[in-house]
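Form P-L/3: holo structure prediction, ligand NAP.
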Amino acid sequence: MRNILLIGGTGFLGGALAHRLASADFSLLLPTRRPERVRHLAVLPTARIVAADVHDDATLARLMAGQDAVVSLVGILKGDFRRAHAELPGKIARAATAADVPRLLHVSALAAAADAPSDYLRSKAAGEAALRAAYPAATIFQPSVIFGRGDSFLTLFARLLRLAPIVPLACADARFQPVWVEDVVSAIVTALDRPESRGQTYPLCGPREYTLRELVAYAGAVSGHPRPIVGLPLALSMLQAFLMEFLPNGPMTRDNVRSMQVPNVCPAGCAPPFGLQPTPLEAVAPGYLAG
Ligand SMILES: NC(=O)c1ccc[n+]([C@@H]2O[C@H](COP(=O)([O-])OP(=O)(O)OC[C@H]3O[C@@H](n4cnc5c(N)ncnc54)[C@H](OP(=O)(O)O)[C@@H]3O)[C@@H](O)[C@H]2O)c1
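OUTPUT (holo model):
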């Protein structure tokens, strides 16, 4: 059995990855800030959940001991991007190097770039750079928006559409190439056994591009709440996001609006890694959105 440390492994993507790895008999260590919130993962027979502050170097050093691989998945959509996206990957990479962990895999984001328009995307790029500087053989994944049961994307649209008679939509023409969570998991798990993935960066996208308007309309149609959608100009998109920042779990921030100013689609001619065939949205989403 191989030992894998999943940092940020208790969320949407990490949970799916943990299920796949546990079913393949990997032994998993899952640090979390709130073990009481992730009891659903405690049922995995080979998973051990521990309360830990992964920003603490000594804690990271302890977590790394005896691991065959580390997957770094911490991500946020608002909050302290510098700490979570830029500094933490560097700390993880230094700890993995110090502990001689043979593999390090990291989940960043598509369109991450030092000159990107949002703090989210710039901090993701800074994290990639810090990770590579300390662990050049790390494998980096850059997914577009990820869909699947439990996502906070199509599921969120479907919920909002149930409540709203009409949708004033920010960035309606923003472009995405959504990728299924199980396809992202497949790429990560496959990379573990592929030496050629060392040092590589893989964009991960689904088979088709959509505008945000198309995706919201699709979520409405499939969930049984089709609604008229009114695209907002940029100034009103920013105002809407600003107002949502006052809500405790507001679905949008001004930084999210800035992220959507660049296309979240894979570069032309970019093939999925390892010959994997991405799953169409339409083959999966009705299964968790309908009803
Ligand atoms: N979902 C998408 O559409 C999407 C698209 C592109 C890239 N990504 C990237 O994929 C990765 C996983 O995303 P996800 O959707 O699974 O996210 P998620 O469901 O929100 O899970 C986030 C994970 O990060 C941990 N975490 C959050 N803030 C933290 C902090 N300040 N310090 C330490 N741990 C923290 C959480 O652990 P606790 O148990 O401690 O809360 C949780 O395990 C992220 O890097 C994200 O940026 C996601």
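COMMENT: The first strand starts at residue 3 and ends at 7.
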